[in-house]
Amino acid sequence: MRVRSTRPAAIIAVLIAALAASIAPVAPVVATAVAATDFGTPIARSTFGEAIVFSQPLTIERGVERVEILVETPGALGPFVSTVEFDAVAGQTTLSHRIDLADGSVSPNTRFTARWRVIHQDGTTDLGPPTSVTYADTRFDWRTRTGDVVRVHWYEGNDEFGARALAVGEAAVEEAADLLGVELADPVDFFVYADADPFYDALGPASRENVGGRAIPETRTMFARITPDAINDAWVGTVIPHELVHLVFDTAVDNPYHYPAHWLDEGLAVYLSEGYTDSDRGAVERAAADGTLIPLDGLIGQFPTSRERFFLAYSVSASAVDFLVRTWGRDALVGLVRSYADGVSDDEAFEAAIGIDTTAFDRAWRDELGAVEPIAYGPRPAPAGPLPPGWDEDPVGSPDPGAPSGGPSPTTAPGGAPSGGGDGPGIGLVLAVVAFVVAGIGAGLLVADRRRRS
Ligand SMILES: [Zn+2]
Questions:
Q1: Which of 86, 122, 193, 410 could make a disulfide contact with 67, Cβ separation 3.0–4.6 Å?
Q2: How many angstroms does the Cα of residue 215 sit away from the middle of ligand 1?
Q3: Ligand 1 center to residue 142 CA distance, Å?
Q4: CB-CB contact of 330 with 321 (8 Å)
Q5: Could you tell me the maximum CA-CA distance found in the chain, to the nearest angstrom?
Q6: What is the pLDDT of residues 21-66, one digit of tens each?
Q7: Counting beta carbons within 10 angstroms of the beta carbon of residue 252, is it exposed (0 to 12), middle (13 to 18) or buried (19 or more)?
Q8: Residue 390: which pLDDT band, with cuts at 50, 70 and 90?
């Protein structure tokens, strides 16, 4: 699973909340006659599960309009600026700013950098020195093993455990980076949790229970839950590469305009970490035969949440990547992925790489499978309800004789209320209730599911 959108949004939310909690300066003192602002050494302190607190001693010798803190996090478009309450009297003080992280919306290994800005009443501005702190999970005594690109951190298990996790990770990064022709300049941190609860704490709220790993491209961090006795299990050899492929993919496609379809990202991760397996093939062929195949345009964003559709989405994604490689070759796949770095749309990327747009590709893939035309889901027009008395008359002076009669025209039914009879909310409400119940059952199954994919 990749969660590109989660963290910056979450961080912004946290910062907005923190703005409200900005702490007033401590005890301003009388000024002396020196110009500008004298910044002391800034301090940043992180407490896992609680907060990050920045503080800045300074002496201000001119009238102050306002004081701001500029906080930057990886992947953000720029610093998040908060106004910090400040006594207008110039002098010595220590400013403090708290960012509350108790809600778990920021994942460990996120680095915060802050600097303070003083805007004087005469319009001049002084910018203080930066200070940084990494929001780290300090609940464990992490051991670290460093490879060429990957740094593995684990707290349970011996040296062999760390060595094995590092070897799998390094090989996966090398293979994916070679294929996509990218070089990972910065290291990737890989945190291995042995316990479920701390692992889900690290992933943050709303994480799915069947997630075995997660990559966060912005912080170049990956989390996985692997107990020491499972390190040689086959799934470890796929979950680690799967997540690392996401990090490499993110590096390859990085641009500020458009992120590729989710199925391409997940399809590549599955295809490179485990291939198009018989299990995935079976699921796709069954769905193609019974009309339940998910078209690719249904997998551009988040995958379905029900257990069956969730796993089918991965199988479909791997199938589409396999089809692309078999039909146009690996070089076309690589060209397609890399072209996204130019900020192209999906159709532009597909047309340049394989000569057809995404709709035609979707059609060609389904044609090869001999797929039954899928049932269209999604929003539909609501069924017509009962009309108030008099509303079924054709409105006078209607400009469109073809328009459905009986619309709620103010000229024909001023203040008209729905009639007391009829079937009320009717079938729409029933369907909504049924959908809600089905979704609930799906979520329950998801919780019980022990398969892992992310
Ligand atoms: Zn994934």
A1: 86
A2: 8
A3: 25
A4: no
A5: 85
A6: 444 344 343 333 344 788 999 999 999 999 999 999 988 877 888 8
A7: buried
A8: confident
